[in-house]
User: Fold this.
Amino acid sequence: MMVPREKEGRLPVAGEKAEPELSISREKVCYIITRAREFDAKVEPVEPDPGSNPADSGEREVLEDYADDPTLAELRAAIDGLNDDEVVDLIALAWIGRGDFTKGEWQEARALAWERHRHSSAPYLVGMPTLGDYLEEGFAELGYSCADFETGRL
Assistant:
């Protein structure tokens, strides 16, 4: 009989529950968290003062949410590029991070995400306020971290 190894390379202790296995890679989750955080920081565009100098705007448009925003496009593309199992994991992670489910309810969260998952998951996920926080909290709840991923990338 084969005994599954934990992600740290150790054998599970008797009575210890193994961490939920994700279908989506850690790198993909961390990339989406980073893009979601960038998008979450966006604010509604402010009409510039007609008499103001564009140089005085402090490049504020980088933080403003426009329809053709490249940050939104990157986030949507990253989500749309996932297969069904990966999208289901992402939705379940967000729900756990939001407090709708616990780590012990991972399979239930996945089942409900699968049931409700359609090919329009990107608008659903992008529409969640603070998606980046929800994903990171859900990821941490399952015992994962983006600390190594962020080092040298941000």
